[in-house]
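Here we describe the complex-level prediction in full. Unlike the single-chain runs in Section 2.1, the two entities below were treated as one system.
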Amino acid sequence: MATETTKSIFWRGVRDGAPFILVIVPFSTLFGVVATEAGLSVLETLTMSVLVIAGAAQFTAVELLRNDVPTVIALVSALAVNLRMAMYSASLTPYLGEATLGQRAWAAYFLVDQTYACSVLKYEQNPDWSIGQRLTYFFAVAVPICPLWYLFTVLGALIGNSMPEGLALDFAIPITFLALIAPMLRTRAHLAAAFVSVVTALLLNGLVYNLGLLVAGILGMMAGAQVELIDSRRAEREGGA
Amino acid sequence: MIDPVALWTVIILLGAGSFALRFVFLGLIGDTPLPPWVLRHLRYTAVAVLPGLVAPLVIWPEATGGELDAPRMAAAVVTLGIGLWARNVVLSICLGAATLYGGLYLLG
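The structure predicted for the assembly as a whole is:
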């Protein structure tokens, strides 16, 4: 087919989003369980999933609140985990900038790891897509993902409410985070960021208000950026020689 | 028990803040490219914050009162190892949990 119809683009988006169901369902269920174990009600858990739709930040907030960390520290730490969303936003702006303000606001709300990753790839491959087709694809990817995120958060919360004590759920959050972190360690720069973050967090563990985590985050970011710079310069030199 | 005021403050402000981060370029700044050094730092935010959060939880688990704990340490190593090897989040959570409960059963 020479030209794609908007309808076929919609179904392509749904198909591209569908494999993520395998990640979204267990992950949101686990969040529901962990949140209710930490003392959140079903309504509070669902509200968080609907307003935030970002698993890692939600887990971060619950874990810190559970440990009686000051509210502002819990908030800043969870937002720091979501800073990458600003990068996604910047990266999609050349493609979606001409949409209406309302459309861009909805796109911003549904801007999650999966919608971003699928869209930016397809936009590069299909530079001739109209703004309407780009929006259709973007929202189509969210169709199999976001409603299930809400739904299985509730299911997890209901499971968590009826679960017996003593299931060692204290360790659900560390295991989830480790599983999220491992695939991120793709380059030397990512490894450096993670390493500096771990060392700093352990050294500053006793610091008041959990400030050690914020310092670890900032130093880790700087380490990653610095190693990336060094490595890209080296690659340039070797490429030019 | 989490204080309800603190909880709702975080839920609402985290929601608003996350939306603001997603909206800032799409909605407000528009097509002005970010300086490369800013993008370079943003790329490493998640990988800089999450390991710092998780490391103390693994080394000093609260369930054991901060004592290093073999089943929890083994679970952490397995989760990280499977994640690095298979790059599969759900698989590493499942095998990590299996290690934890297996370890607790055998040693507990």
